[in-house]
Amino acid sequence: MSYATDPSPDDGPAPRESGTQALDRALSVLLAFRGTDTERKVSDVSRELGLHKSTASRLFRALADAGFLHRNEENGNYRLGVTVFELGARYLAGLDLHGVARPLVHRLAEEEGESVNLSVLEGLDAISIHVVQGTRNLQLVSRLGRRIPLWCSAAGKALLIDQDDAQLRATLATAPFTALTGNTITDLDTFVSRMATVRQQGWALNDQESEEGLRVVAAPVRDRHGRVTGAISVSGPIFRLDEPRVAELAAAACRTADELSRQLGYGFGDVWGD
After folding, report:
1. pLDDT at 85
2. How many angstroms separate the CA atoms of 249 and 141, rounded?
3. 144/197 Cα distance (integer angstroms)
4. Of 243, 235, 250, residue with least CA distance to 200
5. What stretches in the chain show pLDDT beneath 70?
6. What is the pTM of this model?
7. 90-124: per-residue pLDDT in tens?
8. Which residue of 40, 197, 199, 271 is most buried, as measured by CB atoms within 10 A?
9. Which of 102, 131, 97 shows the shortest CA–CA distance to 114?
10. How far apart are CA 246 and CA 178, in angstroms?
11. Among candidates 85, 36, 32, 80, which has minimal Cα distance to 56?
């Protein structure tokens, strides 16, 4: 955000400012509360932003009048006000995994040229709720609504990434572990053992476990409470997805999943409740 700084934060009268400049400065004051300090002094923020002290005081008062800031009458410091909470709550209430993810999933497919899926957990399956075909030749595209067993899909493993060994055994106690290919994991013990690697690296691999000739990487998506709410996966033929390419796509899937998680409120603390 760009705005002209005052010639001196403390000396002389504050210069007049345009409406746009005032708005920029007011927003900058609000953004100064993104740190760990719950309360801030007007003088500290004015120095940090290069604002004249009288300008900063006027902005703080205006923001407090609108409920964006609240003044502590005991020490004169300010903290974020109830209007910020109300707007944040409205933002979170309007979040929709599919809607928020759509542009990110399409961007990932365009950047990497491979097919991208957004999946959610349902029973013992990972189900595709959004599918984007890649731009490269020979695409192996999952259909919308396709179900793939958790034990043989990258998305399924990513959806289970936070479960410890005991939780995995409970979740998959009734799973048949049917073999779809020669690479499918067919017993619970092996699956639980391999999930340790998934948890350690933060992403999952399907190496021809659900379909011959197909490799898939997937990363978990988290909601504002930190719970895994979905998975973003990137898939392609094995002749294109060699080990170095798998690592590249895994990193890209993780970046996109992390960005989506942030847009869903993850990483800001569980301050909104249920």
Report:
1. 82
2. 16
3. 29
4. 250
5. 1-19, 91-95, 138-142, 269-274
6. 0.70
7. 765 666 888 899 999 999 999 999 999 999 999 99
8. 40
9. 131
10. 25
11. 32
